[in-house]
């Protein structure tokens, strides 16, 4: 099967969706526990949430393979995103809750990790970087939106309830000052949904790495998944989704309109 879905862009906008894949190769699945095979930490339903007319002209890349096989939002050298805090790694052995993903003695060793990086991680990043560079050459800049979702409560990672919308720009280092102001202004306009900017989640590898490229303005949106699904059953919640999708769409439109204004300068 294809490792990811890709749509070529015709505007200076790219959306990356690295954690909504669910495919686990059978030979890897045989090594996993029942909890690992549940893929609980998947960013569920993001392709559905972001199936928006506004993105039709933008580039999109979305993983098909589970993050438990290889985490596409971690660096290839497995450097911790948040030093001193719990880190799941590029080939995680524990879920966010702390449950074993692999059966005893079946965790991937360094040789296996290297193979997975070459086979699963590298193709995604090769495609993403190639598209970013193509659009920068064509338009002079690009907006990168990296989309994620997470459980409302993950005591192993943070205390209490996670806010509904968690925006991250690596403390403004992954974008220009005007773009950072745009993110902060939008966050303040959300209304009934709680939000933070650059708090617990400031952006993963994708936001930080590509946001350090010249002429890339990158932001990560970590959405509390209780805003659109039943966390106990892992089912889509239609009533919740009809409220949150317009906010997501408004955010995407805000980013794309900002990009259009830059083209006119």
Keywords:
seven-stranded mixed sheet; two-stranded antiparallel sheet; 9 strands; globular
Report what the structure shows.
The chain is of the alpha/beta class. It has a single domain (4-263), classed as Zn-dependent exopeptidases (Aminopeptidase, 3-Layer(aba) Sandwich). 33% of the residues lie in helices and 16% in strands. It is built from seven helices and nine strands; from the N terminus they run ββαααβαββαβαβββα. The protein has helices at 26-29, 34-38, 46-49, 110-139, 177-188, 205-211, 238-263, and strands at 4-7, 13-17, 59-63, 142-150, 165-168, 195-197, 216-224, 229-230, 235-236. The strands form two sheets. It has a seven-stranded mixed beta sheet, with helices on both faces. The longest helix is centred in the middle third of the chain and has 30 residues, at 110-139.
Q: If classified by CATH, what would the architecture be?
A: 3-Layer(aba) Sandwich
Radius of gyration: 18 Å
Give the mean pLDDT: 94
CATH class: Alpha Beta
Shape: globular
Which helices and strands occur, and which strands form pairs?
Blueprint: E1 4-7, E2 13-17, H1 26-29, H2 34-38, H3 46-49, E3 59-63, H4 110-139, E4 142-150, E5 165-168, H5 177-188, E6 195-197, H6 205-211, E7 216-224, E8 229-230, E9 235-236, H7 238-263
Parallel strand pairs: 2-3, 2-4, 4-7, 5-6
Antiparallel strand pairs: 1-3, 5-7, 8-9
Quick recap of the structure?
The protein is of the alpha/beta class and 265 residues long. The chain is 33% helix and 16% strand.
